[in-house]
């Protein structure tokens, strides 16, 4: 079984533009970017400053999370590409304006209206679903993860590497995430010419 929702980069850019006009746009945009980098909502909902930034507020290359911020009783790691690092650096400026001198290593990156309380995962799912609905896309917070895995697989990244990047125990789980479209199938056949 594959994921049949396909969202191209242009549509993602349109979604991010739409988000920029929303209330709490900075938080929502960053959560979407975390999802598009393969994170589950449980991973980014509970992210704290110490998870993403060093003690001197430099961006980490890898976000390493303990079991309390992951599905099951496993640790997980998410590698940061240059774009996500840049986005997190900009987001840090937003957090510094928001929290001023109260920003600490324990501060959650994404908070609801309650002071420094992380977003509820069900609320995140509803929020993502409402944004995707505006673009006639059926999906919620997990769709970004599907798109991340699909993009890696369709770019020719070895499935074992994709499995590791997605923090899947079994490669069969990773295989459920990828999708394809007619253009990808045509391109694949084109590449096997003699």
Can you tell me about this structure?
There is one protein chain. By secondary structure, the protein is mainly α. The chain has one domain: Orthogonal Bundle (hpI Integrase, Chain A), CATH 1.10.443. Helix content is 52%, strand content 4%. It is built from 10 helices and 2 strands; from the N terminus they run H-H-H-H-E-E-H-H-H-H-H-H. The chain has a two-stranded antiparallel ribbon. The chain is globular, with a radius of gyration of 17 Å.
How would the blueprint of this fold be written?
Layout: H1 9-19, H2 25-36, H3 41-45, H4 49-52, E1 62-65, E2 76-79, H5 82-99, H6 121-134, H7 143-154, H8 159-166, H9 171-177, H10 182-190
Antiparallel strand pairs: 1-2
Helix pairs in contact: 2-5, 2-7, 7-8, 8-9
